């Protein structure tokens, strides 16, 4: 399972979401709004310090993380 954390004011997030859509990748996109309690809770839960952040999980454990410009060539 892969999760991409994004925000509204992020140019790299727009590009990452477009690539996911264009390639038909099975990646859950999660919008984080740090101005809300829910958004801050998500940031803390997944330790998201910047966006976009792509986290790959296997058996509910994080196995890899990319932050910033995401390399989709091996996904």
For the structure shown, list the relevant keywords.
75 residues, Glutaredoxin, 4-stranded mixed β-sheet, 31% helix, globular
What does this structure look like?
The protein is of the alpha+beta class and 75 residues long. The chain has one domain: Glutaredoxin. It has two helices and four strands, in the order E-H-E-H-E-E. It has a four-stranded mixed sheet, with helices on one face. Strand 3 (53-58) and strand 4 form a beta hairpin. The model has no long low-confidence stretch (mean pLDDT 94).
Summarize the structure.
The protein has 75 residues and is an alpha+beta fold. The chain has 2 helices and 4 strands. It has a 4-stranded mixed β-sheet with strand order 2-1-3-4, with helices on one face.
| Oligomeric composition of the shown chains | single chain
CATH superfamily: Glutaredoxin
How many domains in all? 1
Query: CATH architecture, please?
Result: 3-Layer(aba) Sandwich
Strand content: 25-35%
How many extended strands? 4
Q: What's the average pLDDT? A: 94
Q: What is the percent of helical residues?
A: 25-40%
